[in-house]
Amino acid sequence: MIVKGLIILFFFFIVFSLFYALYTMAKDKSKTNRTVKALTVRIASSIALLIFLMVMYKLGYITPHNL
Question: Does a structural domain hold residue 31?
Fold first, then answer.
């Protein structure tokens, strides 16, 4: 149950950083790098989530359905 909670938190953080990048892009009008930083955080957290999912699958905490 803890693993599912962490996955959901990762996902919400990724979505939040995506909308934050959209907000900064609309507000700043290309005057700062906040949009680039927010998108970099989003990509890094997406990669971290992918690695986390792979590790949890290999350790047996996550199993696929209908196999």
Answer: yes
Is 7 contained in some domain?
no
Counted domains in the chain: 1
Task: Provide the domain limits for residue 26.
Answer: 14-59
**CA 15 to chain CA centroid, nearest Å:** 7
User: Is 42 inside any structural domain?
Assistant: yes
pLDDT (tens digit, 9 = 90+) per residue, 21-52? 999 988 887 678 888 899 999 999 999 999 99
Per-residue pLDDT at 44: 96
Query: Which one-letter amino acid corresponds to residue 18?
Result: L
Report field, pTM of the whole predicted structure over 0.85: no
Query: For the chain, how are helix, strand and coil distributed in percent, rounded to 5?
Result: 80, 0, 20
